[in-house]
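Much of our argument rests on the idea that a fold can be written as discrete symbols. Part of our work consisted of pairing the sequence of a single chain with a tokenised description of its backbone. The amino acid sequence and the backbone structure tokens for this protein are reproduced below.
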Amino acid sequence: MTMKMQKFKFDGFERITKTKCRKLFEEGKEFYMCPCNLRPGARWNPEILIDVNSINERKGSFLNKEKTSIEVFNQLVIEFTHYNCPDRDCGLYPAFYVTPAVEVQEETSK
């Protein structure tokens, strides 16, 4: 049985699939991760902005330079899940979001 992702759009954030998020990561575009039961843009800002360019700048300090972008993406998701998705209240897995600025850049590049 396959579960479908719930589509949400609120406060300027649109939920996207992990596959689409992985493509954005490979293209060097920004996206947000947030525990699945929390809303990005809400009080206390539970979302985390993932800026690929800043990750690439620090890559030598905390990531193995030999890793592919997919391996780096998977490592980030695992670490985010470990530290930010501790229970059923927050959610047990991350949800991925983009803001309209990222969507517009995507559409104009097509």
Residues 25 and 77 are 12 Å apart (CA to CA). The first helix runs from residue 18 to 27. The chain is about 45% helix and 15% strand. Residues 9-109 form one domain.
